[in-house]
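#struct-pred
JK: can someone run the complex with FE2/S2 (inorganic) cluster? inputs below
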Amino acid sequence: MGGGLIVKVTLGPAGPDADVSPGLTLLEAWPGRAGLDPVCGGKGRCGGCRVRILGGDVSGADEDEIEVLARLGSRPEHRLACRVRVLGDVRALADPPGGAGRTPDHRGPVPVSTPAAPSVAAAGRLGLAVDLGTTKLAGYLADLDTGTLLETDAIPNPQRRFGADVISRLGYALTSPRHYRQVREAAALGVTELADRLCRKAGRSRGAIREMTVAGNPAMHHLLLGLDVTTLARAPFQPATVEPITVPAREIGLPIPALVYFLPCVAGFVGGDHVAALLATGAGTLRGGALIVDIGTNAEITLARDGTLTTCSCASGPAFEGAQISRGMRAVAGAVDKVWLEGGRLRFRVIGGGAPAGICGAGLLDLVAALLATGTIDRSGRLRAGAEGVGLLLTQADIRELQLAKAAVRVGIEALLRETGTAVEEIERVYLAGSFGTNLDPEKAVAIGLFPPLSPDRFVAVGNAAGQGALSTLTSPEKRAEAVCLARKVRHLDLTSRPGYQEHFLGALGF
Ligand code: FES
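RT: done, C-alpha coordinates with the ligand placed:
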Protein backbone atom coordinates (compact mmCIF):
# COMPACT_ATOMS: atom_id res chain seq x y z
CA MET A 1 0.00 0.00 0.00
CA GLY A 2 2.99 2.29 -0.29
CA GLY A 3 2.87 5.39 -2.43
CA GLY A 4 4.71 3.82 -5.34
CA LEU A 5 2.32 0.94 -5.91
CA ILE A 6 0.15 0.68 -8.96
CA VAL A 7 -3.27 -0.92 -8.59
CA LYS A 8 -4.80 -2.80 -11.47
CA VAL A 9 -8.54 -2.42 -11.89
CA THR A 10 -10.45 -4.72 -14.22
CA LEU A 11 -14.15 -4.57 -15.01
CA GLY A 12 -15.34 -8.15 -15.12
CA PRO A 13 -13.47 -11.12 -16.56
CA ALA A 14 -13.39 -9.69 -20.10
CA GLY A 15 -13.49 -5.99 -19.30
CA PRO A 16 -10.89 -3.25 -19.66
CA ASP A 17 -8.09 -2.72 -17.11
CA ALA A 18 -7.05 0.45 -15.33
CA ASP A 19 -3.96 1.16 -13.22
CA VAL A 20 -4.48 3.42 -10.21
CA SER A 21 -2.74 4.19 -6.93
CA PRO A 22 -3.94 2.49 -3.74
CA GLY A 23 -5.67 4.85 -1.35
CA LEU A 24 -7.92 6.22 -4.06
CA THR A 25 -11.65 5.88 -3.67
CA LEU A 26 -13.21 2.98 -5.52
CA LEU A 27 -15.08 5.51 -7.65
CA GLU A 28 -11.79 7.08 -8.73
CA ALA A 29 -10.40 3.61 -9.41
CA TRP A 30 -13.47 2.45 -11.35
CA PRO A 31 -12.67 2.42 -15.09
CA GLY A 32 -14.97 4.73 -16.93
CA ARG A 33 -17.34 4.71 -13.93
CA ALA A 34 -19.09 1.95 -15.85
CA GLY A 35 -22.42 0.81 -14.43
CA LEU A 36 -22.47 3.66 -11.92
CA ASP A 37 -24.47 6.86 -11.89
CA PRO A 38 -22.51 9.26 -9.66
CA VAL A 39 -24.79 12.27 -10.11
CA CYS A 40 -23.63 14.10 -6.97
CA GLY A 41 -20.08 13.98 -8.29
CA GLY A 42 -18.67 11.83 -5.49
CA LYS A 43 -20.00 13.82 -2.55
CA GLY A 44 -21.61 10.78 -0.94
CA ARG A 45 -25.15 12.07 -1.23
CA CYS A 46 -26.91 10.52 -4.20
CA GLY A 47 -26.19 6.83 -3.77
CA GLY A 48 -25.71 6.44 -7.51
CA CYS A 49 -22.26 4.98 -6.98
CA ARG A 50 -23.49 2.14 -4.79
CA VAL A 51 -21.53 -1.06 -5.24
CA ARG A 52 -21.49 -4.48 -3.67
CA ILE A 53 -18.21 -5.38 -2.05
CA LEU A 54 -17.82 -9.07 -2.72
CA GLY A 55 -14.62 -9.38 -0.74
CA GLY A 56 -11.38 -7.59 -0.07
CA ASP A 57 -9.73 -4.91 1.97
CA VAL A 58 -11.36 -1.50 2.01
CA SER A 59 -11.77 1.37 4.45
CA GLY A 60 -14.70 1.34 6.90
CA ALA A 61 -17.95 3.24 6.53
CA ASP A 62 -18.49 6.47 8.41
CA GLU A 63 -21.77 7.67 9.82
CA ASP A 64 -22.74 9.69 6.75
CA GLU A 65 -22.25 6.76 4.43
CA ILE A 66 -24.19 4.43 6.72
CA GLU A 67 -27.04 6.90 6.76
CA VAL A 68 -27.22 7.17 2.95
CA LEU A 69 -27.05 3.37 2.59
CA ALA A 70 -29.82 2.92 5.14
CA ARG A 71 -31.99 5.41 3.29
CA LEU A 72 -31.54 3.36 0.13
CA GLY A 73 -32.58 0.13 1.90
CA SER A 74 -29.15 -1.34 1.27
CA ARG A 75 -27.78 -4.77 2.09
CA PRO A 76 -24.81 -5.49 4.36
CA GLU A 77 -22.38 -5.79 1.46
CA HIS A 78 -23.34 -2.46 -0.07
CA ARG A 79 -21.01 0.55 0.00
CA LEU A 80 -20.71 3.87 -1.76
CA ALA A 81 -17.79 3.74 -4.20
CA CYS A 82 -17.08 7.42 -3.66
CA ARG A 83 -16.54 6.81 0.07
CA VAL A 84 -14.66 3.51 -0.04
CA ARG A 85 -10.88 3.69 -0.16
CA VAL A 86 -9.06 0.79 -1.73
CA LEU A 87 -6.59 -0.67 0.77
CA GLY A 88 -5.89 -4.05 -0.79
CA ASP A 89 -7.42 -6.62 -3.07
CA VAL A 90 -11.10 -5.91 -3.62
CA ARG A 91 -13.84 -7.53 -5.60
CA ALA A 92 -16.85 -5.37 -6.25
CA LEU A 93 -19.94 -5.16 -8.40
CA ALA A 94 -21.78 -2.02 -9.56
CA ASP A 95 -25.21 -2.01 -7.95
CA PRO A 96 -26.78 1.45 -7.95
CA PRO A 97 -30.35 1.66 -6.57
CA GLY A 98 -32.84 0.64 -9.25
CA GLY A 99 -30.08 -0.54 -11.52
CA ALA A 100 -32.02 0.57 -14.60
CA GLY A 101 -30.17 1.86 -17.61
CA ARG A 102 -26.90 0.24 -16.63
CA THR A 103 -24.82 -1.63 -19.14
CA PRO A 104 -24.95 -5.33 -18.19
CA ASP A 105 -21.46 -5.93 -19.60
CA HIS A 106 -20.01 -3.53 -17.08
CA ARG A 107 -21.66 -4.98 -14.00
CA GLY A 108 -19.34 -7.88 -13.37
CA PRO A 109 -16.98 -8.20 -10.41
CA VAL A 110 -14.16 -5.66 -10.36
CA PRO A 111 -10.94 -7.16 -9.04
CA VAL A 112 -8.61 -4.46 -7.72
CA SER A 113 -5.20 -6.02 -7.25
CA THR A 114 -2.19 -4.82 -5.27
CA PRO A 115 0.59 -7.15 -6.37
CA ALA A 116 3.01 -6.32 -3.54
CA ALA A 117 0.59 -6.45 -0.61
CA PRO A 118 -1.33 -9.59 0.33
CA SER A 119 -4.93 -8.83 1.20
CA VAL A 120 -6.09 -8.70 4.78
CA ALA A 121 -9.12 -11.00 4.91
CA ALA A 122 -11.87 -8.60 3.91
CA ALA A 123 -11.01 -6.07 6.58
CA GLY A 124 -12.33 -8.40 9.32
CA ARG A 125 -15.86 -7.05 9.30
CA LEU A 126 -18.11 -8.41 12.03
CA GLY A 127 -21.83 -8.95 12.23
CA LEU A 128 -23.96 -9.10 15.35
CA ALA A 129 -27.37 -10.77 15.57
CA VAL A 130 -29.43 -10.00 18.67
CA ASP A 131 -32.46 -11.79 20.04
CA LEU A 132 -33.96 -8.93 22.03
CA GLY A 133 -36.02 -10.78 24.60
CA THR A 134 -38.07 -9.46 27.49
CA THR A 135 -35.99 -11.38 30.01
CA LYS A 136 -32.64 -11.66 28.30
CA LEU A 137 -30.67 -10.44 25.34
CA ALA A 138 -28.90 -13.16 23.37
CA GLY A 139 -26.17 -12.24 20.91
CA TYR A 140 -24.35 -13.99 18.09
CA LEU A 141 -21.11 -12.50 16.79
CA ALA A 142 -20.11 -13.60 13.31
CA ASP A 143 -17.35 -12.90 10.81
CA LEU A 144 -19.25 -11.31 7.95
CA ASP A 145 -16.76 -12.28 5.32
CA THR A 146 -16.39 -15.95 6.13
CA GLY A 147 -19.84 -16.41 7.64
CA THR A 148 -18.21 -18.04 10.70
CA LEU A 149 -19.98 -17.79 14.04
CA LEU A 150 -17.36 -16.49 16.47
CA GLU A 151 -19.09 -16.19 19.83
CA THR A 152 -22.49 -16.36 21.49
CA ASP A 153 -23.54 -14.96 24.84
CA ALA A 154 -26.56 -13.68 26.72
CA ILE A 155 -27.18 -11.10 29.42
CA PRO A 156 -30.28 -10.19 31.45
CA ASN A 157 -32.34 -7.44 29.83
CA PRO A 158 -31.48 -4.29 31.81
CA GLN A 159 -35.06 -3.10 31.27
CA ARG A 160 -36.15 -5.58 33.94
CA ARG A 161 -35.95 -2.88 36.58
CA PHE A 162 -38.90 -1.21 34.83
CA GLY A 163 -41.08 -4.34 35.07
CA ALA A 164 -40.94 -8.08 34.47
CA ASP A 165 -43.32 -8.03 31.52
CA VAL A 166 -43.76 -5.84 28.46
CA ILE A 167 -46.99 -4.22 29.60
CA SER A 168 -45.35 -2.98 32.83
CA ARG A 169 -42.43 -1.55 30.89
CA LEU A 170 -44.64 0.11 28.30
CA GLY A 171 -46.78 1.52 31.11
CA TYR A 172 -43.71 3.01 32.77
CA ALA A 173 -42.39 4.39 29.49
CA LEU A 174 -45.69 6.11 28.78
CA THR A 175 -45.82 7.98 32.08
CA SER A 176 -43.34 10.64 30.91
CA PRO A 177 -40.83 11.35 28.15
CA ARG A 178 -38.05 10.94 30.71
CA HIS A 179 -39.28 7.47 31.62
CA TYR A 180 -39.56 6.53 27.94
CA ARG A 181 -35.95 7.64 27.49
CA GLN A 182 -34.85 5.58 30.49
CA VAL A 183 -36.44 2.38 29.15
CA ARG A 184 -35.11 3.01 25.66
CA GLU A 185 -31.60 3.76 26.91
CA ALA A 186 -31.62 0.60 29.03
CA ALA A 187 -32.21 -1.45 25.88
CA ALA A 188 -29.43 0.34 24.00
CA LEU A 189 -27.04 -0.08 26.93
CA GLY A 190 -27.89 -3.78 27.09
CA VAL A 191 -27.17 -4.31 23.40
CA THR A 192 -23.91 -2.36 23.70
CA GLU A 193 -22.84 -4.40 26.73
CA LEU A 194 -23.67 -7.60 24.86
CA ALA A 195 -21.64 -6.43 21.86
CA ASP A 196 -18.69 -5.60 24.14
CA ARG A 197 -18.82 -8.99 25.86
CA LEU A 198 -18.90 -10.84 22.58
CA CYS A 199 -16.09 -8.77 21.08
CA ARG A 200 -13.96 -9.23 24.19
CA LYS A 201 -14.45 -12.99 24.01
CA ALA A 202 -13.55 -13.00 20.32
CA GLY A 203 -10.57 -10.67 20.83
CA ARG A 204 -12.07 -8.15 18.40
CA SER A 205 -13.16 -4.55 18.49
CA ARG A 206 -16.74 -3.32 18.69
CA GLY A 207 -15.77 -0.86 15.94
CA ALA A 208 -15.45 -3.78 13.51
CA ILE A 209 -19.18 -4.55 13.74
CA ARG A 210 -20.64 -3.36 10.45
CA GLU A 211 -23.91 -5.18 10.28
CA MET A 212 -26.51 -6.02 12.89
CA THR A 213 -29.84 -7.76 12.89
CA VAL A 214 -32.35 -7.54 15.72
CA ALA A 215 -35.23 -9.93 16.35
CA GLY A 216 -37.40 -8.68 19.14
CA ASN A 217 -40.95 -8.78 20.35
CA PRO A 218 -42.87 -5.67 19.29
CA ALA A 219 -42.43 -3.85 22.60
CA MET A 220 -38.67 -4.40 22.71
CA HIS A 221 -38.45 -3.58 19.00
CA HIS A 222 -40.42 -0.32 19.33
CA LEU A 223 -38.59 0.86 22.44
CA LEU A 224 -35.12 0.35 20.96
CA LEU A 225 -36.17 2.07 17.75
CA GLY A 226 -37.78 4.94 19.67
CA LEU A 227 -41.19 4.34 18.06
CA ASP A 228 -44.48 5.46 19.55
CA VAL A 229 -45.76 2.71 21.88
CA THR A 230 -49.10 4.31 22.78
CA THR A 231 -51.21 1.90 20.72
CA LEU A 232 -49.03 -1.05 21.66
CA ALA A 233 -49.71 -0.60 25.37
CA ARG A 234 -53.48 -0.87 25.34
CA ALA A 235 -56.18 -2.91 23.59
CA PRO A 236 -56.28 -3.76 20.76
CA PHE A 237 -52.46 -3.59 21.04
CA GLN A 238 -51.51 -2.30 17.60
CA PRO A 239 -47.86 -1.83 16.67
CA ALA A 240 -46.80 1.47 15.08
CA THR A 241 -45.37 -0.55 12.21
CA VAL A 242 -44.80 -4.19 11.27
CA GLU A 243 -42.43 -3.45 8.39
CA PRO A 244 -38.73 -4.39 8.42
CA ILE A 245 -36.59 -1.39 9.33
CA THR A 246 -32.94 -0.60 8.67
CA VAL A 247 -31.27 2.23 10.60
CA PRO A 248 -27.72 3.31 11.38
CA ALA A 249 -26.87 2.00 14.85
CA ARG A 250 -25.85 5.43 16.11
CA GLU A 251 -29.34 6.73 15.40
CA ILE A 252 -30.75 4.40 18.01
CA GLY A 253 -28.10 5.08 20.63
CA LEU A 254 -25.70 2.26 19.81
CA PRO A 255 -22.05 3.35 19.59
CA ILE A 256 -21.42 0.89 16.78
CA PRO A 257 -20.59 1.78 13.14
CA ALA A 258 -23.19 -0.59 11.74
CA LEU A 259 -26.46 -0.71 9.93
CA VAL A 260 -29.12 -2.39 12.03
CA TYR A 261 -31.82 -4.49 10.39
CA PHE A 262 -34.94 -5.10 12.47
CA LEU A 263 -36.92 -8.14 11.36
CA PRO A 264 -40.58 -7.46 10.54
CA CYS A 265 -43.29 -7.94 13.15
CA VAL A 266 -46.72 -9.54 12.72
CA ALA A 267 -48.99 -8.05 15.38
CA GLY A 268 -48.99 -6.40 18.80
CA PHE A 269 -47.55 -9.43 20.59
CA VAL A 270 -46.00 -11.30 17.69
CA GLY A 271 -42.72 -9.75 16.71
CA GLY A 272 -39.55 -10.26 14.74
CA ASP A 273 -38.38 -12.84 17.27
CA HIS A 274 -41.19 -15.20 16.30
CA VAL A 275 -40.70 -14.44 12.61
CA ALA A 276 -37.05 -15.40 13.13
CA ALA A 277 -38.13 -18.64 14.82
CA LEU A 278 -40.40 -19.43 11.87
CA LEU A 279 -37.47 -18.74 9.57
CA ALA A 280 -35.16 -21.04 11.55
CA THR A 281 -37.66 -23.91 11.63
CA GLY A 282 -38.52 -23.61 7.93
CA ALA A 283 -42.16 -23.19 8.96
CA GLY A 284 -43.24 -21.80 5.61
CA THR A 285 -42.41 -25.03 3.83
CA LEU A 286 -43.51 -27.59 6.43
CA ARG A 287 -45.95 -30.19 5.18
CA GLY A 288 -48.46 -31.90 7.44
CA GLY A 289 -49.29 -30.27 10.76
CA ALA A 290 -46.69 -28.72 13.05
CA LEU A 291 -46.65 -26.38 16.01
CA ILE A 292 -43.85 -23.90 16.56
CA VAL A 293 -43.97 -22.88 20.20
CA ASP A 294 -41.80 -20.24 21.83
CA ILE A 295 -42.65 -19.91 25.49
CA GLY A 296 -41.24 -17.03 27.49
CA THR A 297 -42.94 -14.28 29.46
CA ASN A 298 -45.21 -14.23 26.47
CA ALA A 299 -45.81 -17.32 24.36
CA GLU A 300 -46.07 -17.21 20.59
CA ILE A 301 -47.49 -20.26 18.89
CA THR A 302 -47.83 -20.96 15.19
CA LEU A 303 -49.68 -23.83 13.62
CA ALA A 304 -48.07 -24.59 10.27
CA ARG A 305 -50.06 -26.77 7.96
CA ASP A 306 -49.38 -27.38 4.29
CA GLY A 307 -47.86 -23.97 3.70
CA THR A 308 -50.32 -21.97 5.79
CA LEU A 309 -49.33 -20.28 9.04
CA THR A 310 -51.76 -19.35 11.80
CA THR A 311 -50.36 -17.65 14.87
CA CYS A 312 -51.51 -16.50 18.27
CA SER A 313 -49.85 -15.10 21.34
CA CYS A 314 -50.65 -15.86 24.96
CA ALA A 315 -49.77 -14.04 28.16
CA SER A 316 -48.03 -17.01 29.76
CA GLY A 317 -46.44 -14.83 32.42
CA PRO A 318 -43.01 -15.27 33.92
CA ALA A 319 -43.61 -18.57 35.81
CA PHE A 320 -42.01 -20.69 33.08
CA GLU A 321 -38.90 -18.57 33.39
CA GLY A 322 -38.79 -19.15 37.13
CA ALA A 323 -40.00 -15.66 38.03
CA GLN A 324 -42.76 -14.93 40.55
CA ILE A 325 -42.24 -18.39 42.01
CA SER A 326 -41.20 -18.46 45.67
CA ARG A 327 -37.96 -20.33 44.98
CA GLY A 328 -37.95 -19.69 41.27
CA MET A 329 -34.84 -18.86 39.28
CA ARG A 330 -33.62 -19.00 35.71
CA ALA A 331 -32.18 -22.23 34.32
CA VAL A 332 -28.64 -21.50 35.45
CA ALA A 333 -26.18 -23.16 37.85
CA GLY A 334 -27.87 -24.06 41.11
CA ALA A 335 -31.34 -24.42 39.64
CA VAL A 336 -33.28 -27.66 39.93
CA ASP A 337 -34.14 -28.43 36.32
CA LYS A 338 -35.40 -32.00 36.60
CA VAL A 339 -37.55 -33.78 39.17
CA TRP A 340 -38.75 -37.38 39.03
CA LEU A 341 -40.16 -40.16 41.17
CA GLU A 342 -38.01 -43.11 42.12
CA GLY A 343 -39.51 -45.78 44.33
CA GLY A 344 -42.21 -43.33 45.36
CA ARG A 345 -39.64 -40.73 46.46
CA LEU A 346 -38.83 -37.44 44.76
CA ARG A 347 -35.43 -37.11 43.15
CA PHE A 348 -34.06 -34.03 41.55
CA ARG A 349 -31.15 -32.78 39.49
CA VAL A 350 -29.33 -29.49 40.04
CA ILE A 351 -27.67 -27.66 37.15
CA GLY A 352 -23.94 -27.79 37.84
CA GLY A 353 -24.44 -30.08 40.86
CA GLY A 354 -24.36 -29.16 44.56
CA ALA A 355 -27.18 -27.92 46.76
CA PRO A 356 -30.23 -26.47 45.02
CA ALA A 357 -30.48 -22.68 45.03
CA GLY A 358 -33.95 -22.64 43.52
CA ILE A 359 -36.04 -24.15 40.77
CA CYS A 360 -36.37 -23.17 37.10
CA GLY A 361 -39.49 -23.42 34.94
CA ALA A 362 -38.74 -26.90 33.61
CA GLY A 363 -38.04 -28.17 37.13
CA LEU A 364 -41.25 -26.63 38.41
CA LEU A 365 -43.22 -28.35 35.68
CA ASP A 366 -41.59 -31.70 36.57
CA LEU A 367 -42.22 -31.20 40.26
CA VAL A 368 -45.90 -30.44 39.77
CA ALA A 369 -46.27 -33.44 37.45
CA ALA A 370 -44.67 -35.67 40.10
CA LEU A 371 -46.85 -34.30 42.89
CA LEU A 372 -49.92 -34.83 40.70
CA ALA A 373 -48.85 -38.45 40.20
CA THR A 374 -48.54 -39.01 43.95
CA GLY A 375 -51.81 -37.23 44.66
CA THR A 376 -50.05 -34.53 46.68
CA ILE A 377 -51.66 -32.03 44.33
CA ASP A 378 -55.23 -32.72 43.27
CA ARG A 379 -56.71 -32.11 39.82
CA SER A 380 -57.93 -28.66 40.83
CA GLY A 381 -54.39 -27.69 41.76
CA ARG A 382 -54.89 -27.79 45.51
CA LEU A 383 -51.83 -28.75 47.50
CA ARG A 384 -52.99 -31.30 50.04
CA ALA A 385 -52.26 -30.72 53.72
CA GLY A 386 -48.95 -32.06 55.00
CA ALA A 387 -47.30 -31.75 51.61
CA GLU A 388 -44.21 -29.98 52.91
CA GLY A 389 -41.04 -31.99 53.15
CA VAL A 390 -40.67 -32.44 49.42
CA GLY A 391 -37.20 -30.99 49.74
CA LEU A 392 -38.11 -27.94 47.72
CA LEU A 393 -40.37 -25.15 48.83
CA LEU A 394 -43.47 -25.12 46.65
CA THR A 395 -46.36 -22.94 47.74
CA GLN A 396 -49.98 -23.02 46.74
CA ALA A 397 -49.41 -19.66 45.05
CA ASP A 398 -46.63 -21.20 42.92
CA ILE A 399 -49.02 -23.87 41.69
CA ARG A 400 -51.63 -21.23 40.85
CA GLU A 401 -49.02 -19.27 38.85
CA LEU A 402 -48.15 -22.40 36.91
CA GLN A 403 -51.82 -23.15 36.27
CA LEU A 404 -52.39 -19.66 34.83
CA ALA A 405 -49.34 -20.01 32.60
CA LYS A 406 -50.13 -23.46 31.28
CA ALA A 407 -53.81 -22.62 30.73
CA ALA A 408 -52.84 -19.59 28.64
CA VAL A 409 -50.66 -21.71 26.35
CA ARG A 410 -53.10 -24.59 26.11
CA VAL A 411 -56.00 -22.29 25.22
CA GLY A 412 -53.87 -20.84 22.44
CA ILE A 413 -53.04 -24.26 21.03
CA GLU A 414 -56.66 -25.39 21.17
CA ALA A 415 -57.81 -22.20 19.43
CA LEU A 416 -55.31 -22.79 16.60
CA LEU A 417 -56.46 -26.39 16.21
CA ARG A 418 -60.11 -25.32 16.13
CA GLU A 419 -59.53 -22.43 13.76
CA THR A 420 -57.60 -24.51 11.25
CA GLY A 421 -59.80 -27.60 11.59
CA THR A 422 -56.79 -29.64 12.67
CA ALA A 423 -57.16 -32.72 14.86
CA VAL A 424 -54.56 -33.25 17.59
CA GLU A 425 -53.32 -36.44 15.96
CA GLU A 426 -52.58 -34.47 12.78
CA ILE A 427 -49.83 -32.60 14.61
CA GLU A 428 -46.73 -34.44 13.47
CA ARG A 429 -44.15 -32.20 15.13
CA VAL A 430 -44.01 -29.71 17.97
CA TYR A 431 -40.95 -27.49 17.69
CA LEU A 432 -40.02 -26.15 21.11
CA ALA A 433 -38.01 -22.95 20.95
CA GLY A 434 -36.37 -20.94 23.70
CA SER A 435 -34.69 -21.86 26.95
CA PHE A 436 -37.77 -23.24 28.68
CA GLY A 437 -38.86 -25.18 25.62
CA THR A 438 -35.40 -26.69 25.29
CA ASN A 439 -35.26 -27.82 28.91
CA LEU A 440 -38.77 -29.11 29.45
CA ASP A 441 -39.70 -32.77 29.50
CA PRO A 442 -42.52 -33.20 26.92
CA GLU A 443 -44.03 -36.10 28.83
CA LYS A 444 -44.42 -33.96 31.96
CA ALA A 445 -45.68 -31.04 29.91
CA VAL A 446 -48.42 -33.26 28.51
CA ALA A 447 -49.10 -34.66 32.01
CA ILE A 448 -49.91 -31.22 33.44
CA GLY A 449 -51.94 -30.28 30.35
CA LEU A 450 -49.59 -27.67 28.90
CA PHE A 451 -49.80 -29.56 25.61
CA PRO A 452 -52.53 -31.81 24.19
CA PRO A 453 -51.96 -35.56 24.42
CA LEU A 454 -49.14 -36.15 21.96
CA SER A 455 -46.41 -38.75 22.02
CA PRO A 456 -43.08 -37.39 23.38
CA ASP A 457 -41.34 -38.41 20.16
CA ARG A 458 -43.23 -35.70 18.28
CA PHE A 459 -41.51 -32.94 20.28
CA VAL A 460 -38.30 -31.43 18.99
CA ALA A 461 -36.26 -28.93 21.00
CA VAL A 462 -34.77 -26.37 18.62
CA GLY A 463 -32.91 -24.09 21.06
CA ASN A 464 -32.95 -20.37 20.53
CA ALA A 465 -34.68 -20.42 17.16
CA ALA A 466 -35.20 -16.64 17.27
CA GLY A 467 -31.46 -16.10 17.61
CA GLN A 468 -30.68 -18.59 14.87
CA GLY A 469 -33.18 -16.91 12.57
CA ALA A 470 -31.71 -13.48 13.31
CA LEU A 471 -28.24 -14.85 12.63
CA SER A 472 -29.32 -16.24 9.27
CA THR A 473 -30.46 -12.79 8.14
CA LEU A 474 -27.12 -11.21 8.99
CA THR A 475 -25.46 -12.07 5.70
CA SER A 476 -28.31 -13.28 3.55
CA PRO A 477 -30.57 -10.89 1.64
CA GLU A 478 -32.59 -13.94 0.65
CA LYS A 479 -33.27 -14.76 4.30
CA ARG A 480 -34.41 -11.18 4.90
CA ALA A 481 -36.78 -11.46 1.97
CA GLU A 482 -38.02 -14.79 3.31
CA ALA A 483 -38.62 -13.22 6.73
CA VAL A 484 -40.79 -10.53 5.13
CA CYS A 485 -42.74 -13.19 3.18
CA LEU A 486 -43.30 -15.22 6.35
CA ALA A 487 -44.45 -12.20 8.34
CA ARG A 488 -46.96 -11.32 5.62
CA LYS A 489 -48.13 -14.89 5.23
CA VAL A 490 -49.00 -15.33 8.90
CA ARG A 491 -52.65 -15.16 9.81
CA HIS A 492 -52.89 -13.73 13.30
CA LEU A 493 -55.59 -14.83 15.74
CA ASP A 494 -56.47 -12.40 18.50
CA LEU A 495 -57.42 -14.90 21.19
CA THR A 496 -58.99 -12.62 23.78
CA SER A 497 -61.52 -11.21 21.34
CA ARG A 498 -62.73 -14.65 20.30
CA PRO A 499 -66.04 -15.95 21.61
CA GLY A 500 -65.78 -18.26 24.59
CA TYR A 501 -62.20 -17.29 25.44
CA GLN A 502 -62.88 -16.89 29.17
CA GLU A 503 -64.71 -20.21 29.38
CA HIS A 504 -61.93 -22.00 27.53
CA PHE A 505 -59.34 -20.42 29.81
CA LEU A 506 -61.16 -21.38 33.01
CA GLY A 507 -61.65 -24.89 31.65
CA ALA A 508 -57.91 -25.24 31.03
CA LEU A 509 -56.83 -24.26 34.55
CA GLY A 510 -57.24 -27.68 36.14
CA PHE A 511 -54.82 -30.54 35.71
S1 FES B 1 -21.40 9.65 -6.29
FE1 FES B 1 -23.17 10.22 -5.20
S2 FES B 1 -23.06 8.98 -3.47
FE2 FES B 1 -21.29 8.48 -4.53
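RT: quick notes.
The radius of gyration is 26 Å.
Confidence is low (pLDDT under 50) at residues 100-123.
JK: thanks, will look after standup
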